[in-house]
Design a protein that fits this description.
Layout: E1 3-6, H1 11-14, H2 18-31, E2 36-39, E3 53-57, E4 60-64, H3 72-77, E5 89-92, H4 97-100, H5 118-123, H6 128-136, H7 138-148, H8 160-169, E6 176-181, H9 190-197, H10 199-213, E7 217-222, H11 227-242, E8 258-263, H12 273-280, E9 304-308, H13 309-321, H14 323-327, E10 330-331, E11 334-335, E12 337-344, E13 350-355, H15 360-367, E14 377-382, E15 388-391, H16 401-406, E16 415-420, H17 425-439, H18 445-462, H19 467-484, H20 488-492, H21 494-503
Parallel strand pairs: 1-2, 6-7, 6-9, 7-8, 12-16
Antiparallel strand pairs: 1-3, 3-4, 4-5, 10-11, 12-13, 14-15, 14-16
Helix pairs in contact: 6-7, 6-10, 6-13, 7-8, 7-10, 9-10, 9-11, 10-13, 17-18, 17-21, 18-19, 19-21
Length: about 500
Amino acid sequence: MTTTVYVPIDSAATSVGANAVALAISAEAKRRNIDIRLVRNGSRGLLWLEPLVEVVTVDGRVGYGPIAEADVTALFDAQFLTGAENKFSVGIVEEIPWLADQQRITFARVGVIDPLDINDYEAHGGLKGLRTAIALGPSKTVEEVLASGLRGRGGAGFPAGIKWRTVLETESAQKYVCCNADEGDSGTFADRMLMEGDPFTLIEGMAIAGIAGGATKGLIYIRSEYPDAIATMRAALLIARGCGLLGDDVLGSGKAFDISVRVGAGSYVCGEETAMLESLEGKRGMVRAKPPIPALHGLFGEPTIVNNVLTLGTVPMILAQGAAAYQALGADRSRGTQVFQLAGNIARGGIVERAFGISLKELVESYGSGTRTGRPVRSVQVGGPLGAYFPASALDVAMDYEALLAAGGMLGHGGIVVFDDLVDMAQQARFAMEFCAKESCGKCTPCRVGSVRGTEVIDKITNNVDRTENLELLNDLCDLMADGSLCAMGGLTPIPVLSALRQFPEDFQR
């Protein structure tokens, strides 16, 4: 009898030895003359347990972790292949409370399937959404996405269906679908994990977008810092073409759609859609003035659907299960689920997919179990390096677009970074300005010059140089950057600066 063993191939798992563990398990099984089937899956997102080894038993998949290469012999001695309980055991993986309480839609297959096995993908519900879109046709597919309430998960929260409808209604001989996988926010990793753990979901979502908008070409713009994701997506695209998921006749529909991968050069600002389009055209990644919007005048001047990985990766489930099922989740105008990423000084970092409306406190305390150092939480940044800082006293805020906006923050890409009571918030404010200065594309003066001046002004404040005057100057400078910058790079930089100044004024008085 062959026993199936899963060892993650996700970058987070391999960074802590998953490849060595997989090789050791294969070698030990061979040495003991035991027949196993080793599958390299994506990560379940319980990153503090990586490498997490799973074994298929009659009761379900039993997990053991974290496992080091040196633990493998002891793991075999403890009869892990039978699902036996031992010091490494974490029980039935699906029943781990941290995972069982989630509402996984976008990440439903990540960690469950073999990422590059199209049959495994289809056996777990894959391609149902694309077949539904083909049967519905472009207009009804767009209406289904609109009805679901799906909003862009890249940060802006713009309704995806409106973009799609605009492209569909715009006449052009050539249209495009561009997936923005330039995931550059600190503390975010969901795009990478989806591409490495369930690449066919992204491919299927892009194919649905292509059919809905009348596009025949798709491009995935992946940051160069993601070599494993790049390799996985390219391998998945070859498989997709081989089985008719892509090409001149998508699943026998008579519709043509194909996808290629483009690798970014490491520019943070290329996470902005128009800067990404400039880069895709072979130009320097600098933002474009809007209007015109990409849906009307996008890649090479043609109508273009631009969405990020999580947005497009959610579409197949919406089409497969129906818009009403997705619309039933969430809060107010934030419908469905968000893939939250817990990072920073946190005891249990990883992926939490829950319906919009969950509190920041529940994510940090219940899922994250507080700080890794064991010290009190002092500050939590939501929404990447340009997101607001929330003090420990304000963690009851609901995690949805409108509630965070009302609280002076933004959801962004769903990144949550935790800091304990040793953090210097004046230095965190300085980091925001310095980050903007280094990553600015340089096209507009408020961002290019304002961020440099902002760094200098914060240094003067913390060094007690004309503190009162410079505090006033910092506020004026933030107003100028927010109102005058061409894109969100400079426009949002004041958010972390002002939130740090407002919530932690004592750090600026030292």
